[in-house]
Amino acid sequence: MSADFVILLLAVSPLLLLVPTAVRLYRSLPEVELEQQEMLARCRAAAEAHYRAHRVASPDDALSFDPDVAVVVTEEESFGRRPRDRSWYYRMERIVRNPSGEYFKLVYSHEGIGRFAHIAHQVAKVVLGDRYRQAPPSAARPNASSSADAGSGTGGGAT
Hints:
The chain is built from four helices and five strands, in the order ααββββααβ. By secondary structure, it is α+β, with helices and mostly antiparallel strands.
């Protein structure tokens, strides 16, 4: 054997030890992807159930909420694994409009913690930009104190 071949063999041999590990990792990728898809599907189903559970009946139609007739204006999701402990996280945020033209915000996280609140029109206009629609003139307006509370982020509560 030539000296060059021996040097090459010594240089490559540690890399050959990594081949079984690389093959094992490559084979496990579909399992990880399937686990991620299943977890995302479970989180989305829980978030949708949480959203559908919110029904608010109010003497003031503008503050009533029924998810079956509300229009989803925006929806944002974040999903993945935390780097520190590799646990899953999920967060869904929706802004919806009821038939009276009033806006509501729903935030849901993977821990089952959610928040649902009315959003003042001034806040909705800024947050939604071009997607904002003025309430119809015939719609009853909520009183100023509930709009101010919801717009400041203090309205609503955990459910």
